[in-house]
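Ticket #4471: structure output looks truncated?

Reporter: J.K.
Steps to reproduce: submitted the chain below (128 residues) through the standard prediction queue, then opened the result file.
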Amino acid sequence: MSDEEPLTIYAVRITENAASNISQEKRRLAGIVDDAIIEQWEDGLIAAFSALSTMPRRYPVAPEQKYFPGSPPLHVLVYRRSSRRNAPAYRIFFTIHEEGDEAPTVRIQHVRHGARAPLGPDEFELES
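Returned output as attached by the reporter:
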């Protein structure tokens, strides 16, 4: 019998802000790639979100955490649609919540194309 703690499974929630980011990116992509590529991108993004349901702390705290003092750490996962080195990267910002009566939860706070400038202090508010 093992003395290890059982693996915690986190619910993954997409905030309104992140859902808006995804919709905006899909509209942008619609002007440059075909629907099959957009579908692959979205499927991969959902798979990346699902990966956060176990051990989300394996991803680093984002440098942008400095803009959210006193809030839960803002972690970042880098997602690429394919393994090609030149494939566009997306930064998925998320927080981890384990307090209260709610089940442990990962909240996807923001999704950003990797070529965009780093997040600024006034771009969005963390949703709890």
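Triage note (M.O.): checked the attachment and the full token line is present. The chain has one domain: 11-113.
Status: closed, working as intended.
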